[in-house]
Request: fold
Amino acid sequence: MAASQKLMSVRRDWRERDVRVVLSALIIAVATVATIALFASQLQRTLVTSASSFLAADRQLESENGREIPEAWLEEASSRRIQTARMVEFSTMVYGADNFQLVSVKAVNDAYPLRGQVEIQEGADAPRQLVTSGPAPGEVWVNPRLLRLLELEVGDTLDVGNRQLNISGLLVREPDGGFRMSSLAPRVMMHSSDVASTEVIQEGSRVEYVYLFAGDEGALNNYYSWLQPQLEPSHEWEGVRDGETFSESLQRAERFLLLGGSLAVMLAAVAVAVASRQYAMSQRDTVALLKTLGVNSKGIGRLYLRRLGLWGLVGAIGGLLVALPLFWLLSSVLGDVLEQQVDMHLDPNALAPALLTALVSLFAFAYPPIRRLKNVPAMRVLRSQPGESGREAIPDMAIAIFAIFGLVWMYAREVSLVLALLGGLALLLGTLAMLGWVLVTTLRKISGGGNAWRLALVGLYRHRRASLSQIAVFAMTLMLAATLILVRTSLLDDWQAQLPDDAPNHFLINIAPDAVDGVEEFWAERGQPLRDLYPMVRGRLTELNGQPVKEAVTKEERVGALNRELNLTWMESLPDDNEIVSGQWFRPGDQRGVSIEAELAGKLGVEVGDELGFTIGSDKVTETVTSIRTVQWDSIKPNFYMAFPPGGGLDDMPATWITAFYLPRDQKSALNEFSRQFPTVSLLEVDHIIERIQEIVRQVTQAIEAILALILAAALVVMAAVVSATMQERQREGALLRTLGGRQSLLVRSTMLEFALLGFFAGILGVIAAEAAVWALQFRVFEGQFQWHWQAILPIPVISALVLALFGRWQLKPVLSVSPMLLLRRLE
Amino acid sequence: MSDLSEHHSQDLRPMLKVTDLSHRVSLETDTLTILQGVNLEINRGESVAIVGRSGSGKTTLLGLLAGLDTPTEGTVELDGAMISQLGEDERAQLRSRRVGFVFQSFQLLPALTALENVMLPLELSGSTGPEAKAKELLERVGLGERLYHTPRQLSGGEQQRVAIARAFASEPAVLFADEPTGNLDNRTGHDVSDLLMTLNREQGTTLVMVTHDERLAARCGRQFSIEAGVLTEPARSAEAETGAVN
Reply:
């Protein structure tokens, strides 16, 4: 190979340490971004699929007016390559053996479910199995409780209206077993073709037709745009995102993944920038020599540009080669967690950010210092010229920051995320400037000596420029890693708090006032005391400040809460997860006033001091709004729009009581006894929903841990890259010190101390900046409460000091094992 | 061919002609004069030593003569080209065709083998068969067995011999040497300077060397001394009597 070509061969470049660092950083950058993007897209698909299975589809259209929707709507969906399925839900009495029971029937067609699976058992002791269809015509699947109530078994027949249907399985879980107050009666699932022959549905029957849609996100959105103008108020279009259950947590998980991806981009960029600057420095002699040998500036520029292009290619290909196996690995771990086959999907869109990252990293971070190489004077071959003053680095930094935030924005599409990180970074650089000043003014006074501490401090001072820039990079790296750790911790804590292991998984509804004591006693005897019992009064909101509410609110049909009866309650103290946003909660002894849920208040334009009129049965109750509070709708607990004080406006109204409680799986048999003893109390079993949600939380947690591990690994590599950037100089110094008679132990101790100090300062800075970023993120992006993370503030600087001390020891190794003479020669 | 005829037509002109050359650098507070009023003419095939202590300005002068830098005042004419008035790129082109260098610190590219280091200028100037020629030169400097070693695997003397082979590879009209034995011990330094002188004679190259080594300087046809930026020709050797004008 010709020498001049070889000047540009990657293999030759690889022999140079700085190029190895640039290429490694680039490969890591592309690999991290590609892995995260691929995995995040995979996870997102899995999550959406999981979440979609709450609907058994991607979207649902409910018709609550007892009429089916026009057939043309479904045809239009099919023509847009959207899959459809239909079901009808109604309540009826069924008969089996000698008993009657009110049940809630769901009749489904062959296409059901479009997403998720139905879990059934062929007998009480048979294994659970997942199937992707409903029962065949002539068959029904029923809730196990119904069999207990009717004293039937699988294989018996059940009379539904005029039809006898064969009970062919136990319905353990339906994919759209959403949790609605109406589904109190035990469930019977049948085939929709049998519905007509039961003759249950008559004129005026309360029937709900539900249509399921699944397909491409874009197609669904376009379809909805087409459909929306034709919808009536009784039609309700529901998507995964606006379903109540857990959607907020899903969104937060998604944002976390994006944050992780963004931080990976920043880390990678930092590594590339540091290494390429170092590389450019080391190339100055070569450039001067090439110029002396007659290569002009343009030639030099071309040479290095082509070299960068080559690196980009190697970095992109190498990064993808690393990313793909990693992705397979993570995905199969995800599959194990989900206990289901995860279909691998290589999303080409997910690769684009990785390649773009490679390009931007090269041209925004690596190119500026390398571009300036062509300005290196030829005269440098004869006499070393003053290096870069550092002033040139300012525009580099401006370009870099601009590019980093461009990348993060491209990646996360979240302005507040970008601003939070930018704020953290600004704080970091500001503090760093102060630290630099302190370093220079205080350490200057220390003179060298035989003591490791003094030597370490002198070392810090002597390398102050390198030290400061290394602290900057370490602090930035730590800030990014710490941000991620802190956000992860608070995210997981939030979820844990929301869904503790003993989260209520059963509801008791319709408890008559005189049965309350008996019910409480029943469960107390079985070691499951009921905690919060709420009275519930059904009523409509009819007046707002003396005016009929439908006149007072112009877009009243948009406010679903006005179209149906609301559950009103009275309570003494504010539930833990509610929060007053305006006004004041009832004081002890208060008997007037009402507290309204914030979102509804917003839609109605209600403020504290407004007067609300309720119609309860034939009575009217008027109360002034005394507080507005937020409600955690995705908590599985009784939640109320309206709360009155005890002894207030609801006092004389007919109330029933509601409660939610936790019942371990092995005590479920107590439910049969309960049903017999309190036949009028309705029981809602949501344990399967809770399990499902907990499973999703586990998945997301695993994913978050995996991504965190990946990013921490990247952070370590960045640190290693930065340490190795000044390795040669430090090794030479070490060799000199040994030559001049420094003892090995002194050298080791002072170097480790110097690095530990470096790490400690960087750790403190990083944590402060991370706290700032987390504060902003919690505030804007994750909508959580900010608190100081004392448990992170102390360990992070200590850990970073330890890690860096070890890095320092590691880079000293050659200095200790080889004779100083050999080393000095080698470092010439 | 045209190159050759150009050579002949310029044969009678001096290889290097320096007129009223001064060089100053501005520092933060004032201006430092490094060279002042230098006049110098060097004929083809001559060997010239410029002797001076550290900081006397000799390296700056060498850089200006070779067109690595441009002077603040005055002109430098190299092989008929007014290099002090050429742009950076034109000077680079001139260097690749006419000029060779030997440095105190050898300046070999660490990632290239000995052979590749020698081939580099040949390839840059577009010569044919660079490899054969580079091998021949390395044989000539006694490194035929070390073609594929990288600079790190070579001793200082060997590295300087590679550098000399590289300097002569493109058959330069003029060779500039900056303290070529400065980093070598006496014995090795002597061997290296022998080699340099021999090749210089064989190829008829004009040699301009700066050094503080009086003995090495004495082996050149003419010696100049430089002090505080002023060039003088203290002892003119007989055979050069007619050549130089101060």
In short: Residues 733 and 824 of chain A are 9 Å apart (CA to CA).
